[in-house]
Amino acid sequence: MKRIGILTSGGDAPGMNAAIRAVTRTALANGIEVCGIRYGYAGLVAGDIFQMTSETVADKISRGGTFLYSARFPEFKEEEVQLKGIEQLKKHGIDALVVIGGDGSYHGALKLTRHGYNAIGLPGSIDNDIPYTDYTIGFDTACNTAMEAIDKIRDTATSHQRVFVVNVMGRDCGDIAMHVGVATGADAIVIPEEPFDIKEIAENLKQGFANGKKHGIVVLAEGVMDAEKFKDELLKYGDFDARANVLGHMQRGGSPTMRDRVVASEMGAYAVKLLLEGKGGLAVGMENNKLTHHDILDLFDAKHHGNYALYSLNKDLAK
Ligand SMILES: Nc1ncnc2c1ncn2[C@@H]1O[C@H](COP(=O)(O)OP(=O)(O)O)[C@@H](O)[C@H]1O
Ligand SMILES: O=P(O)(O)OC[C@H]1O[C@](O)(COP(=O)(O)O)[C@@H](O)[C@@H]1O
Ligand SMILES: [Mg+2]
């Protein structure tokens, strides 16, 4: 193997730059050249490919976003578009590819592998929705950002004795909501994976105020319901004042936390090690604090299991 390529795809996540740096520096240390591919699979197909050096990744570890840029490029689902991508890889003499992205990006990596091209996936998504890894790169930073935002919301909620329904990201996954809910002492966490009863939540909030609480915080995962609608539903059963708040894309930005930088660095170096062993079609993970890998194909039959004990814990602690 002489040269590898690297791209970031799907929703950006803090720590992607740290992963790019680790892949690049590990490869260079092992005498392998590295090509950066801009704008995910879109840039691959367009041939937006450049040679990277150790300096290219200097001063990047602390930066949020991805300096290789990202894209959602649904066209890559089509075989003829994938073949165009492979043509570009061949044209640039790239022997294997590291893809940093979420579940969607893994599908793209699998397709490349099926066309006989070694690709390895690193889990880069704030959602933490990927099977066979306890953490995805970016999850920790996003949780900390959301936590800090909700702490601020709590200040104004307390001053006005209001209920706030705060929508956090996570597409169809409740991991951000569960972690942030526990970390902010939320009165209720609502996630797509668990049934909920709005009337019961409203009753609990009312009881909270009756017990002397000065605020009510509901952390709502985006995959469940629109925050305004949820707030309106709550108000059918409660006589409190309420507001809805959508944290949105601010959760995807910012300098990565120590944990995201370290995990990204470990995973990036590990991916290159696997490629050096001639392995491909794999997804890298961190399970029980150990670096692991699985066939990408196995990931699509598996389901991500969140730490649902947090959901129950929060119910006990919110009383
Ligand atoms: N079934 C698929 N086959 C090939 N490529 C795919 C497939 N699904 C997604 N992709 C590629 O991966 C990109 C990122 O996927 P997306 O689901 O948007 O984000 P993420 O990877 O963060 O989950 C898509 O825009 C597309 O280029
Ligand atoms: O930025 P977009 O395209 O609006 O997408 C928003 C979605 O991307 C995410 O922020 C991250 O998801 P992915 O990592 O799978 O791309 C989700 O939490 C959210 O549902
Ligand atoms: Mg995804």
CATH class of the largest domain: Alpha Beta
Write out the strand line-up for the largest beta sheet, numbering strands in chain order. 3-2-1-4-5-10-11
Low-pLDDT segments? none
What fraction, in percent, of the residue positions are helical? Answer: 40-55%
What is the overall silhouette? elongated
Oligomer: single chain
Mean pLDDT: 97
Annotation, overall tally of beta strands: 11
CATH topology descriptor of the largest domain: Rossmann fold
Order of helices and strands: EHEHEHEHEHEHEHEHEHEEHH
What ligands can be seen in this structure?
A: adenosine-5'-diphosphate, 1,6-di-O-phosphono-beta-D-fructofuranose, magnesium ion
CATH architecture of the largest domain: 3-Layer(aba) Sandwich
Proportion in β-strands = 15-25%
Count the DSSP helices: 11
Q: Write down the domain tally.
A: 2
Strand count, sense and closure of the main sheet? Answer: 7 strands, mixed
Secondary-structure-based class equals alpha/beta
Q: What is the gyration radius calculated from CA atoms?
A: 21 Å
GO molecular function, one term: fructose-6-phosphate binding
Family: Belongs to the phosphofructokinase type A (PFKA) family. ATP-dependent PFK group I subfamily. Prokaryotic clade 'B1' sub-subfamily.
Catalytic activity: beta-D-fructose 6-phosphate + ATP = beta-D-fructose 1,6-bisphosphate + ADP + H(+)
GO cellular component, one term: 6-phosphofructokinase complex
